[in-house]
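Quick bug: Endoplasmic reticulum transmembrane protein output formatted oddly.
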Amino acid sequence: RWQKIFMFPLWSKMAVFWNKMFLTIIVLLIVLFLDAIREVRKYSSVHVNEKAANVNSSAFDHIQMKLFRSQRNLYLSGFSLFLWLVLRRTVTLLTQLAKEMASHAALETQVNDATEAAKKYMAENERLQEALSGKGNGKKKELTGATEEKLKEEVERLKAELQKTSDAFHKAKTEVAAVKKQSEGLRKEYNHLMKEFEQLQVGGSGSPCKHCV
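Here's what came back:
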């Protein structure tokens, strides 16, 4: 399913600009995150100074509103930066999983073909042995021996290829299982982070002052 989705022509056109777009968004989010940190530190210090100075309530509420907005921007930019990196990693894992599944299917087909060919040669060898078992002059025995040797060599070669293909198949199967396990762990971590983000949104949804509404 993912292989079919990623084979859309739209993605191949976007792939040329994808890395540039990703880096641009990362740089933008980092700039916003650093700016939010600067604003939070700035208005936090001003908030403490103004509170200690006992200034009028209007100025104090304005500073409190600025502090709330800077904290909100800090949360949004930080989680956006983190979730964007998680999204990139998720797409990478899904792409690897789709490729491993495709190679897994190809190796399985190759193993089946090699098995069928080996069975076919073994059946032909048995038929030749049965056909030549009762005929006993020396020349025919030599031809029969040479044919049997060739068939044995061919069977051994096919068995070696079958073993090699089977080993590659098991290796690909192990890699697919590892990618699936990593993707499952990433999905659980993503769900956990989304729950924390929703809790932070619920906790920060209240306005600290009447001017923030």
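Actually, after a second look the formatting is fine. The chain has four helices and no strands. Closing.
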